[in-house]
Structure prediction request, 364 residues.
Amino acid sequence: MNQRLQQLSSWLTEKDITCSFITSTPNVFYLTNFYTEPHERLLGLFVFQQEEPILICPNMELAQARNAGWEYEIIGYSDTDNPWELIQHSLSKRNITISSLALEKEHLTVDRFEQIQKLFPSTSFVSAEEKLHTLRMIKEEKEISILEDAAKLADYGVEVGVHAIAQGKSELDVLATIEFELKKKGIRQMSFDTMVLTGLKTAAPHGKPGLETIQKGDFVLFDLGVVLDGYCSDITRTVAFGEVSDQQREVYDTVLKAQLAAVDTCKPGTRIGDIDRAARTIISNAGYGEYFTHRIGHGLGIDVHEFPSMNETNDMLLQKGMVFTIEPGIYAPEIGGVRIEDDMIITADGAQTLTKFPKELLIK
Prediction:
């Protein structure tokens, strides 16, 4: 078994848990190198203390699973099969009795949990999330290399967007240009729905791009990322078009100062909450505290939002290999919003910023 599967098996042995049943696409990918989006169909992975693991997936995905390097049993099924019956048959052949089962409680639907209860009526259930979060939190060298390349493509996306800004262009015009140019680079999927917001719409942290047009004096906010070899990047930059008011410049400078302060605190042993506090204190002291309405960032990897949550109450200490975002913002409805976001990795003695697009106020 690969090292990741071995680590999960060792945890099961340590905790005296019979096996785990992993059902989310990101965690199945992490453990098997097989990435698929099964939609409503069942995808699952049984990992045991000693027995070889079992993968469950639709028949149409069998070849992809083998091509991804999966060497163990696969339970394939067609759309007319009942996969739960096939699982029961496979476990019976192995004479496996499951007394305790680790599940992704945050992922399972009620319907699927009821199916599992029918399959294992005398089984106790525990959460697998804590261990999976811990495993995925510390990135390996190969993962870091992919994340570095994904960050470069995010930088490129912002560069394309800035060059596309013009009087009267709509948010969706610019967004389409960004994604078209990234597809020409081989990117099939964005980390999340790309955001290009202009004017007062920038004051919505998760605003929806539309047909609103760019006008002189607007902030233009870009929030985007790409999926590269199964890993995500995430960058935000805010630029100005034509001119800025004194108040807009003050807001921008405050966010930049806060973001740089937060970045400077990042090193092994730093409490996560202190990173949030470093930025939040600057924004609050400038009189904009009520307009910083979210945490300082989030873990980053296979999912664009991963463990840990980078908020001011988190007492976890940074460790080498952790990758996360730093993204303070001010969202003032009467002025507009500014957010500046970078992807960070903790190194042996400090931190490295993966996203490199300039952060000084750019007036296009």
